[in-house]
Design the sequence.
């Protein structure tokens, strides 16, 4: 990857869902370029296609039409193993509903991506522990999600997203289920990661004050992006 | 993904649903256990029959006086008196015949000093031991000359010795049989239970002529045991004897035999065959339960895949490859069937041993049957685990994540 290569480049991306024989055009031609180290916030009404876009960016879904280059690599050409490796190494994903494994300790949750990266047990534990401590959860390593507050759960999820040291963090309404004080804490964490570690972040939110933290704000309406 | 980690993951996932895992494994446990128990019962029966076959003398023919029509009344086998000692001597001269033993039997009360014991007295010739593959524990057997002279001597079975003499050595002592004082010449080796559970050692042998004339007052014999040189010789002797006896008894063409002839080797080998069919039947009935156990595994794994669709999505989102997911679920099925198999082996062996010690069943646990049952269980784990595992690994990451 040369210095100038954008982390994300989308050209004319469409996504259409067929539901009950009705076609839903979730994305109608998205062009987007995100450079390394950027912090981009995407806002928009519910149903405007934000999550759909995010899933495509995260290689959890594929564009119906158009192209996506991740770090200069055309995603269309990758097989499922290569996509899994990208999700594992290059992208960290944070969801609105945390998506932690239930009845599984914070430590085990954070270790999971390292399991699929083939990291040995001792090293896995060391890194997962360090990541959780960085998120201020050093005292909660063995707690299960049900024993943690929403803010703590999202920080476990963030630790899990970052434990493989990805260059890109995607967050789909990460504060949507949190109270405003906790939201501010999490957002501060994002801003800090972007500023101090050069992490490229794409964040979805519908709160304007949260979006204000970002370097660039985009708006989505009916499957299209507007500045 | 690292193997030990994958295995740990599988065990942990099962542990999270302990009761369900236990109930699922129970199907395999019962299946493997019953396969092992049933095969042990079957193999035991087979072995018992094989041993009896050896005891019988496998190349033996047996003749009995047969029923014949007399004034419209058919009498049972052995109730007529067609066979004689002369028939036996004639058979002895046939080619391929090693030994011929004509016998008669009668019940008698045996007395020795204060004690008495009701038993069977069999009148025999020295060939008897050969045809029955029997031997002496002590003393000696009576000779052809003693048979010819109808001497009052006898040889005792172990049970009779125990009942009449206790610890006293009976050889040389006098036993009273039907008022006749018979000197004990020897003691038979212990033979154990016969085909029908009868005590073969509860017997007294005396010279054929002594029993015929002095005890029973008859001149015919009850049966003639013939030992041939081999299986083929037994088959040809079977035909030769029929021809010979029909001629000796002057039976016209078209008239039924007045004797019966049995090929013991054939009887025994057909018994052996049915025992082996029995063993496989038991084994396959038990395998059906193992199969049902496998279907139980598939059922639970399918439920588990559905229940854990979100988990699968999360794992995929975090970098699990399709084969990681496939192995995760396959390993769970394998651990279930493997542990079920091990417990089943232990339980099956325990059940077989218990059955062996508390019932009449003879039990033999062959190592191959244990290996068979266990590998069958493992195969069932793979076979029935593969479908749910493939289903799980075939999910699209986003669809799995969105699953409610
Ligand atoms: N799996 C799906 N099947 C059918 N329609 C879908 C699916 N996912 C999303 N949609 C539709 O696509 C549109 C965009 O959804 P989404 O990307 O989730 O919007 P947002 O995240 O901005 O609320 C909506 O109209 C939604 O109903
Ligand atoms: Mg959304």
Sequence:
């Amino acid at each position: 990857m040369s210095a100038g290569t954008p982390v994300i480049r989308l050209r004319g991306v469409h996504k259409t869902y067929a539901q009950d024989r009705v076609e839903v055009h979730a994305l109608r031609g998205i062009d987007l370029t995100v450079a390394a180290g950027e912090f981009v916030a995407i806002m928009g009404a519910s149903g405007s296609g934000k999550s759909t876009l995010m899933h495509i960016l995260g290689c959890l879904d594929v564009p119906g039409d158009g192209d996506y280059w991740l770090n200069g690599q055309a995603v269309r050409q990758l097989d499922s193993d290569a996509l899994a490796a990208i999700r594992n190494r290059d992208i960290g994903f944070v969801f609105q509903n945390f998506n932690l494994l239930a009845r599984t300790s914070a430590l085990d949750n954070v270790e999971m991506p390292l399991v699929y990266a083939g990291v040995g047990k001792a090293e896995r534990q060391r890194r997962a522990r360090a990541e959780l401590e960085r998120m201020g959860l050093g005292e909660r390593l063995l707690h299960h999600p049900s024993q943690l507050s929403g803010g703590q759960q999202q920080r476990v999820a963030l630790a899990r997203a970052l434990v493989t040291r990805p260059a890109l963090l995607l967050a789909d309404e990460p504060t949507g289920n949190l109270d405003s004080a906790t939201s501010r804490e999490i957002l501060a964490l994002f801003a800090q990661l972007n500023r101090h570690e050069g992490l490229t972040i794409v964040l979805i939110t519908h709160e304007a004050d949260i979006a204000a933290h970002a370097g660039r704000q985009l708006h989505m309406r009916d499957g299209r992006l507007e500045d | 993904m690292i193997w030990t980690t994958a295995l740990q993951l599988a065990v942990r996932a099962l542990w999270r649903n302990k009761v369900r895992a236990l109930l699922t494994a129970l199907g395999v446990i019962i299946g493997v256990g019953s396969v092992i128990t049933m095969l042990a019962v079957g193999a035991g029966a087979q072995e018992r029959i094989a041993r009896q076959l050896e005891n019988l003398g496998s190349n033996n023919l047996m003749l009995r006086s047969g029923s014949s029509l007399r004034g419209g009344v058919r009498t049972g086998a052995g109730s007529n008196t067609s066979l004689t000692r002369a028939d036996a001597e004639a058979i002895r001269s046939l080619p391929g015949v090693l030994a011929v033993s004509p016998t008669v039997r009668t019940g008698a009360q045996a007395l020795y000093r204060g004690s008495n014991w009701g038993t069977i007295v069999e009148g025999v010739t020295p060939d008897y031991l050969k045809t029955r593959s029997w031997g002496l524990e002590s003393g000696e057997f009576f000779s052809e000359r003693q048979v010819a002279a109808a001497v009052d001597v006898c040889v005792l079975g172990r049970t009779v010795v125990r009942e009449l003499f206790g610890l006293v050595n009976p050889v040389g002592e006098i036993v009273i049989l039907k008022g006749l004082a018979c000197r004990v010449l020897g003691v038979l080796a212990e033979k154990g239970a016969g085909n029908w559970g009868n005590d073969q050692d509860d017997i007294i042998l005396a010279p054929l002529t002594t029993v015929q004339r002095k005890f029973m007052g008859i001149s015919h014999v009850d049966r003639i045991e013939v030992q041939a040189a081999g299986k083929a010789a037994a088959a040809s002797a079977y035909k030769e004897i029929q021809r010979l006896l029909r001629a000796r008894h002057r039976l016209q063409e078209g008239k039924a035999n007045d004797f019966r002839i049995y090929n013991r080797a054939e009887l025994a080998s057909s018994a052996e065959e049915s025992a082996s069919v029995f063993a496989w039947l038991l084994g396959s009935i038990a395998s059906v339960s193992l199969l049902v156990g496998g279907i139980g595994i598939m059922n639970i794994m399918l439920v588990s895949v559905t229940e854990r669709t979100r988990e699968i999505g999360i794992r995929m989102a975090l970098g699990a490859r399709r084969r990681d997911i496939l192995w995760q679920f396959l390993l769970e099925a394998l651990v279930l069937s493997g542990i079920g198999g091990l417990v089943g082996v232990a339980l099956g062996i325990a059940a077989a041993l218990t059955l062996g010690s508390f019932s009449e069943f003879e039990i033999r646990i062959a190592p191959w049957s244990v290996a068979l049952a266990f590998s069958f269980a493992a195969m069932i784990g793979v076979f029935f685990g593969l479908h749910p595992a493939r289903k799980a690994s075939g999910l699209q990451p986003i669809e799995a994540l969105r699953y409610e």
About this structure: Chain A touches chain B through 26 residues (CB under 8 Å). Residues A 17, 19, 24, 26, 44, 46-52 surround adenosine-5'-diphosphate (ligand 1) (CB under 6 Å).
